[in-house]
Amino acid sequence: MFGDLFEEDFSFISNNQCGKGKKSKPRDTEPPAPREFTNLSGIKNQGGTCYLNSLLQTLLFTPEFREALFSLGPEELGTLDDISKPDAKVRIIPLQLQRLFAQLLLLDQQAASTTDLTESFGWNSNEEMRQHDVQELNRILFSALETSLVGTSGHDIINRLYHGIVVNQIVCKECKNVSERQEDFLDLTVAVKGIAGLEEALWNMYVEEEYFENDNLYRCGACDKLVEASKLAKLRKLPPFLTISLLRFNFDFEKCERYKETSCYTFPIQINLSPFCEQTELDDSEYMYELFSVIIHKGGCYGGHYHVYIKDVDELGNWQLQEEESNTVEDKVLRDTENAKEIENPLAVLKGILSEEESKQMPVDQLGQKLLEKKGMSWNKKYRKQYGALRKYLQNHPQVFQFSPDENKVGLKEKYHKLPFKSDSQGQDLQSPPQKNNVQWNLEKTSTTLRDSSAGCHWFDLNDSKVQPIKEKDIEKQFQGKESAYMLFYRKSQLKRPPEARGNPRYQIPEHLLNEMNAANTELQKKRAECDSASHGIDLHLHLSSCYKFHNGALHPSFTWKESIVDLTIDRRRTLGDLRQSVFQMLESWEGDMILSIAKPLPAGLHLYHSLDGDELTLDGIGLADGADIFVWNGKEVGGTKVLTGPDHEPVIVNVLRLAEYNEGGKGQHFTESQHIIPCSTELGALRRALAPSGGIILKNGSGLGKDTKNWEVLPEEDMKETVKSVGLTDGCSILILDSHDQSLVNVSNGNLTAFTCDISWLQVKNFCRTDAEEKQVKITTTIETVMSDIKIKAIQELQLEEELANDSCLRPVSGNGKLLSPVPEDYTVKEAELKMGSLLGLCHGKSPTSTQLFLYFIVGSDQHTGPEMEIVVEETASVRECLNLMLEKSGLSGDNWHLRRLDWCYEAGEALSQENATLKELNVCRGDTLVVTEGKLPPKGFLKIPIWWYKPLNHMEHQENARDQVNGVTCKMEALEVSPAGEYVQTDMGLCYAGSIEITGEASLEDLKIQAMTLPCCQEQIIPLPAFLRAWTVESKRPGKLLRNNKQQLNEYKLGARVEICIEPLQKEENLGPHELLLRVQMGIPGQRDYYHSTDLVWDISKECTTGALRQRVASHYCLPVDKIEIAKYFPEKFEWLPISSWTQQISKRKRKKKQESLQSAPYHLKDGDIIGVKNLLLDDAKDFSTVRDDVGKEKQRQLALEKKKSRQAERLQNHIFSEEKVNIKHRKPEVALSINVGVFR
What we know:
One of its GO terms (cellular component) is cytosol. With 1243 residues, the protein is α+β, with helices and mostly antiparallel strands. Helix content is 22%, strand content 27%. The chain contains 28 helices and 62 strands. Strands 5, 10, 13, 14, 15, 21, 22 and 23 form an eight-stranded mixed β-sheet that branches. The chain has a five-stranded mixed β-sheet with strand order 27-24-30-28-29. The longest helix has 28 residues. The radius of gyration is 48 Å and the shape is flat.
């Protein structure tokens, strides 16, 4: 009904799943967290089930409902084990509800799961992620329970606890006859809008009377006539539990949108319903109700979250709330000052709390509460970040604290007090926890004094998995706002709970559920113990010295890494001595001293750091992390070689570059490269002696290989006593060794390279020479100064190809889509060829062009998709004519009727190369350009070659024949429909006949063009006395476009363009249109038919105004008809649609009206020359439909074409696996889905 009105808001949930640097463990292997200090269990949210959780908690804390449900045994409901049996009647919903209530009461976990319950509802994962209205769920769940309990002793549970009766009465004012009608209810729905609170709403519903009088009279059955009467409603029967639903959500009919009523709406903790009841003679206690649950909705009308405030009637939870701090800042500062030193030391704080207890012991959970109560802060807020969890902190100080055998209680060791562990208040030893009904109830670890100090019924906020204590006055905060009360639950004040139910969660729970929960608690304790051990376990990698050898300044395994490493898992709380003993046990053959050293794998190999000392220290205390590498050796040597340890002796891998002695290209620099492992404590002087015995200069580049060489810097002579580490050389850094004969390349004074700046990187070369073999690809190390011929020779060598291929091959860059680009001249450097480092080159057959030659692509014809793309190499000094002849020869064409054009940005034939004697270089034709060989000779310079069309509109008789030629209302004449270049069906009512082409100078006038057009053979058949009897149009989309006015105007002034086409229309009389005259084609509709008479030309002067009224006046005068007896519309042939030009005007200001009326040449009409205007004569034809049969056919064709396009696009998406949706910031609303619960048949 409400769609996503109650959609869950998850904005408060963090995306961070685990801490940084911690091992991520599977969530399903961890046992659920135990209950918090409140001893109440929450319910997990399955994605959108907060509304369900809130209602279930309310039912759980309705003891009478809970106990009535528990009273139904397996003999009535069946058992869950019999679900698969075909003949068994298993009432699965009440069974799963019983089991969930038992878990919430008895199972030691922070939150229970409702998965089994929702599965019994028949819900799938989609339903669990979709949130619904809790008021709707309340009714549907009660209906499902009633259906499930048919035929059992609990068939009337809902009716007995929640059923009430409202009576509606109408009293006749004359005969006093009373007509009444009863209505049953399980909950009352009250209005919120415009009402101050619950009492006022009930007063309006059950006290105020409605009167029938004046024109609104009531027909009395006894009087049998219309009479005055009064109508009222009263509560006839009150249920033990009264549920009230607040109408918080309304609809604003002015804004047409939903909204949430957030105004203040009060409701009492106790309410007397006697003023609203029919019978009031009973004692007032019969009408007193107490509030015990408030379901709260937080959010707006399109999303939100539910939680519930509940009164703990049976005192099952532990309620303790931090007292409000002092109102004065001075008291707070004084208190903080007095406790600052003690607070900063958690050991002293905890010892002080325990020493104040008589038994010097208490449950661990209560210890945290004592800290909160006495020191004004919680452990998690003050100490957890630095010292970890409270239990772990206590366990890490075994010399001070002592745990009970079940680790539920903690106390001080005997040296801190003289009393050993004592028995608890009930005389039971700590080693045997108290048991009731044979259930090991470890939640009773909380002290009884806590409950005594907070005796009485208290309120809790149950928000999915989270349970927190609240004060009763906090309910007032839910009177108004976006977070406000949505459902109220009251119970009769007379309903008293038995003493044995107070504080006893096992009260009235069946034996089989007690046993199930007992077993589940035992399993939980076992899993938590295993998880605690696993969470403290760390994995260590042991490297054995017998499997390693030392060379090149680092340790390397004699075999594989896997064979040289032994993995060991150990508890981090154990000592270093325990670790050493474990290693001794694993290595039975070890002799002599055993030293354990921290190791670290480096790029150069394994390196050792400090040794581990202090066998009495814990592994956590010495900082041993999970996944640490430990080297096991004698502490002196490995394989007879002394090993230097520590960070000062870390090995570093350095790339050493030298200038090559021989460079085949003879241009630019080439380098040789090698890697060396150097201890970081090595002095630069010793390094120079080792790498350049004859002397030289060392340059370093801290950015590594392939970076900008401006980072190269010379290591001066005074730095030769520095170490590799001190000058900043690390793994991956590069050093350049220049011998004495290369030192001229360096300016030692400022430490920069002067003779060259080389980016050292690589290019990829792929073999395209052999089609039968696999196309191999190699990397070639190069700089920006490397010559292309050297790259080609090195690629041929690494590809293991024939050396003769070097004379008949070239390198061609490969584009991103795999296309081979123009070859690179061999004498170019990488920089001159404008190649980016890492680019892909193709080694192809054919000689590469020289630096004076151009490699060009060319195609024949104007469409590059119809013909193949060919290649040619020409001199840049060749003329356009010479280049054209070479292209014609290669493509097998001949003749002089050809010319060259460039390929424009739309990949179409563009600008023509009209200067045939100019060289390609002079016309800026570049290497890799594509030219188009186009048929036809170019006109002389300054001339236009214009195709001429003869324009003949369809005459009247042709229209009549089209109108008659109809079958069942659909025309059969389809010649007037053609396909446009855009793939759309368009209408061409006018005939365009190609007459030929003319060559005319751009300085000629429009009259000259018409005269020359009259000489064409097609035009000579017509009798045209003067050029003024011709009308000229441009051709656009196979129909007349722009009208060319003024016969004396030059063609250049029209800005026609190089590819313009002109159509000529013959006229019956001379015409010379002015700049403010608009030419329209008007056609009168044929009365009684969906067709028009032959169109006529209408010249309209728009110099004064171009408005609807002016056009209607002009059309009416043209046909000699009254203005109010015609209707006109503009025709849009590309859409086959008519847009009526209405005479209706809005009541607007004069300024706006003037602007509004000047819109016929703007949107939506865009009136221009040649537009078709349809006219309807209302004296003969009252049909205002302007469309014709051909319009219907055209629209149908366009619709079919659109469907075909859509199907082809869908097929293409399916083939290419394109299913991704656009990510937008708008949160889409979910579809409206009704809530339902599936119930079996038990009648």
